[in-house]
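Thread: magnesium ion complex, take 2
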Amino acid sequence: MGLFKKINFGLRKTRNNMSGALDNVLDSYTSIDAELFDELEEALVMGDVGVSTASEITTRLNDSVRKKGITDPKKIRAEVVEIVADMLKGGEDMGLITVPSIILVIGVNGVGKTTTIGKMAAMYKAQDKKVIMAAADTFRAAAIDQLQIWADRAGVEIVKHKEGADPAAVIFDTIAAAKARNCDIIICDTAGRLHNKKNLMSELEKIYKVIDRELPYSDREVLLVLDATTGQNAINQAKEFKNIAEITGIALTKLDGTARGGVVLGIKNDLNIPVKFVGVGEAIDDLQPFNPLAFAEGLFISLPEDFEEDEPEYVEAMIKADLEAITKEPQEETKEETEEETEETEEETHDDEKPEDDDKKKKGFFGRIFG
Ligand SMILES: Nc1nc2c(ncn2[C@@H]2O[C@H](COP(=O)(O)OP(=O)(O)OP(=O)(O)O)[C@@H](O)[C@H]2O)c(=O)[nH]1
Ligand SMILES: [Mg+2]
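Output below.
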């Protein structure tokens, strides 16, 4: 299934919810008037779009209807798609050019961080990037094992310590390994315990310091993972995280299981955080780079069954590699090298900051947040 079709299918529950209401409005009017806009706004709010964003969409719609001299309500759907696609545009690309670059993945428990990392790793690997994962969710042993499974599936390297280890130390070691092995992209898993904000903040602060010190000039992305099934609660999580960490983008997961996909609009429009990835299922190729037009169409227009679309090459490569990994016999003892990595480096991260580190920290991306 190609990317447009996949997102279209993934958004079917949201579309059914929103479009059903939209159809009712558009079918019951023969001309366009103020009442139609009110009802349309209500339909959007029902689809978890958020009140202020829904109001902005109808205001813009009103403008474009007037400008273009549209009188037929049936033409409104295409206008809404255009406005929504335009609203969602901007900042959706990952800015990872330096070697190495680093992606820090944060978010509360169960939203899909580890799964998203696994899928991202497979995607970058299929694009011929050398990926290394940091198992910095050391809170539970199971979290480390789960990331290991994804590393095996995606066929990428992983650095892990024992349960309870210092997450910043894991990231320190991963960065050292990435430099030594010429990796392109470092992806870091973290534990998400927002209910204990103070701990989370100090943990993130420590991680940021290590990254600032070890990779002062590298491209970084801080991806907040949000579970779309939680609707407006996802927006609240984004607000809370925005207060404690500079977030460069959102990965919105589980869109396939919810009618609340309209929440994307609020995230982009109200919070002004770009959505960079969307998850539409649990399979390795179910994470997509965010495409505003495909998403806007998916919210309002169902693609025909026979819609023809080529699978992008990298997706084909991912599926092929995944099938090979699944059918391959599990190989023991391949990772001992990374597992052994160090107690003493852990101490390095505890070292007091040297004066020159302080400078970098202030200049650095993360240093600016907590500087
Ligand atoms: N349907 C669906 N399920 C998903 C998607 N992304 C993740 N999941 C599922 O959500 C569950 C939680 O995913 P994890 O990746 O373990 O989430 P996490 O944020 O790492 O969770 P913790 O490590 O417990 O904090 C798993 O069962 C995943 O398979 C998605 O896009 N669609
Ligand atoms: Mg996890």
